[in-house]
Amino acid sequence: MFIELKVTNFRSLNDTQTFSLVKCKGDELAVSNSFKVSSVNKLELLRSAVIYGPNASGKSNFLRALQTMQHIVLGSAAEQRGDLLPITSFRLSPNTRQLPSEFEVMFLVDGIRYQYGFSATSEQIHEEWLFVYPKNRAQNWFTRSWMPDTKQFEWKLGENLAGEKQQKYLWQTSTRDNALFLSTAVQLNSKQLQPVFDWFKRNLHLANVSGWGYSFSAKLCENEEKSKVMNFLNAADINIDDIQIETSLFDPNDLSAEMPETVKQIIVENMKGKKIRDIKTIHKDSQGKPVVFDFEDESDGTKKLFSYAGPWIDSLENGHVLFIDELHDNLHPKLVRFLIELFHNPKTNPKNAQLIFTTHETSILNQEIFRRDQIWFCEKDTEQATKLYPLTDFSPRKGRENLELAYLSGRYGALPFVKTMHSAF
C-alpha cells in the first residue's frame, strides 16, 4: 500500500514536492474511496487520487520520479562501476544543477510501514536510508552518507538489521558508489530487506501514456483467467465475443532485410527465446457466425482498454499500486469513470489496491466520484519549477461546490495560459 512520495531537485521539480494518499478529515465517500489500516493506529488511506494540470506542467515528471526510483532499486546492483544513473536535476537554476536529486517513499507491506529513500547524481549515490515502523515505533535499519572530504561513505547499520556481523560487512563493502545498499544486500541474500525490494518489483506498477502494451493481458487469455479479461471488456461495453492468442517463438528471419544490422542485432539479443503473441478478436456477423479480426483492426480505445485489462485484474486481486499517466488517452469519459470505480468499489477491490493517475478529463472532476482529498493539481511557478498541491488547500464546500466549473474558471490554478496569435495568420 502506498502512503507518500517526496521528490526534490528532479527534472522540473525543484523544491521538495510531497504527494500523499493519507485520508484527511471528512466522511464523504469514506466507505468506497478510503480504508483503515488495522496495523497502524488511526491511519486511513485513499484508494485513488487524480492529478490535473496543463501540458508541460510536470505531471509526467512526478510519475517519472517514482519510475526512476524503481529503476535504480531494481537495477543498480547489476550495473557496472562507472555506469551512469538515470538522474537529471533541475537545470534552470545554477544552484541545483550539480546537486543530487532526492527521492523518498513511504509504504506498507504486510502491515509494516517502511520509509525508504536516497539521493543521487548521475555519477553516484550520495545518501540512502531505511526506517521501519513495526508496532508503530521507528527503527533505523541503515543509513549511508557520502563524505566529500574523505571520498568515502559514513555508514550506520542499525541493530535491528538482521544478519551476522561478517555478512553485514560483506553487504557494505560490496555496495558500489553507483549502487544502492538495499539492492546489493538483497542480491546477496538479505531476507529481511527482500519485502522492501519486492514492493518496488511486484506491488508498484507504472505506465506512461502508451500503457503497458498487450502482453500481460494476452498472457491471461492463454489460461483459465481469460474469462476475467472477457468479463472486464464486456463490462466496459466492448463488443468482442472472443479472443484468440496464437504463440510462436521469435524468429530472426522475420525481421525486415532493410533493417539496419546494428538495430537487428539488438532486437535479436533481446528477443532470443521469447514468445511472440498474435492476438485475434472474434466478432459475430449478422447470422451469428464468428468472424476473425486482426487485433490491429480494433479501435485505439479498444486496444488501450485491452492493455489495461491485465494490470487492472491483477492489481484488484492482489492489492497492488498503479500509477498511470494520462488515463483518459483514447478512452471515452464513461470508460475512465468505469476504470476508477472498480477501485472505489470494495467488492471489486477487496484488497485495497490503489490507483494514481494524471488526466485532462474534467467530467470526472466532481464530488460524486472523488473525495476532496483525492484531487491534486500541478503547475509551474515563475521560475518554471513544478508545484504539486491538493484541492484541500482551497477548502471547497463539501458536496456543494461544482469542482469542474471552479477548476475551468481558474479558481484552483493549474490551467494553461493561452495567448492570442495574430501575426502568425
From TrEMBL:
A Pfam family that this protein carries is AAA_21
Return the InterPro entries for the record.
Answer: ATPase_AAA_core (IPR003959), P-loop_NTPase (IPR027417)
Family matches, as SUPFAM superfamilies: P-loop containing nucleoside triphosphate hydrolases
What is the designated name of this protein?
Answer: ATPase AAA-type core domain-containing protein
Q: Which organism is it from?
A: Thorsellia anophelis DSM 18579
What region holds the ATPase AAA-type core domain? 49-366
**What is this organism's lineage?**
Bacteria, Pseudomonadati, Pseudomonadota, Gammaproteobacteria, Enterobacterales
- Which molecular function GO terms apply here? ATP binding; ATP hydrolysis activity
